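[09:14] KT: can someone run the structure on this one? pasting the chain below
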Amino acid sequence: MQIKILADSPCDLPLHFFEKNNVILFPLKVQLNGEEYEDVKTIDPNQVYEAIRNGLTLKTSQPSPFLFEEVFTKMAEANEDGIYIAFSSELSGTYQTAVMILDQVKEKYPNFRLTIVDTKCASLGQGLIVKEAARLSAENADKETILKDVLFKSQHMEHLFSVEDLDYLAKGGRVSKASAFLGGLLNIKPLLNVEDGKLVPIEKIRGKKKLLSRIIEVMRERGDNLNEQVIGISHADNEETALAVKAMIEEEFHPKEVYISSIGSAIGAHTGAGTIAIFFLNDLP
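[09:31] RB: done, structure tokens below
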């Protein structure tokens, strides 16, 4: 039986990916103007960026526990086996809620074979893992093979990203308000990474051109055989920069593929417009 793949919306893959590959989607929720929307499904990221530009503060929340219960119960009754590739537990409570609901469902269906993985990744760092798992599942790979790939990539995925305005991260408690103020005042572009699921500043760089050059340098320092990898780029209403970075990466490293996607509403609500992020592995299996 084919292994079922499940993922939540902060992996920043488009809706058609889930539909085409039969991957189960758990959308996070976005509150805007008193209305609640489902990330990927019922709200466009551009709505989020426009709202932020107009000074609105958005809130996000986890998928409904009832959705987890409904999906897990249906899978258990159908005797399906699956892997849920989850958003970093350090950035959302989604993983913990899913584990709690799985425990409840297994009380009634003790033989239910679902494995939930805390990737400690975000955006396309998580998305690239989901894409490969879906490909392996479609080729009828066994669960051990898929899970081994998911766990390895989760441990070795690098996230390099920068935001246009540090104020958005400050509002969400991701950086200090003092850092945000100084960054805007001095035209400082922060270069950040995700380490063990948390946002960690690497360095501060003045100016966009220097930032992009430094990203290439860090990729060279940290990446392993980048010519053999699929490299991910996600952006928040910043396609021009994404394409520029893609060209730089292709010229420098000649990767197998550079995959670009938009940052979804759930993550975009915290980063704001202009964010650019690059994802690659620091080791290959």
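[09:33] KT: thanks! The first strand starts at residue 4 and ends at 8.
[09:34] RB: yep, looked fine to me
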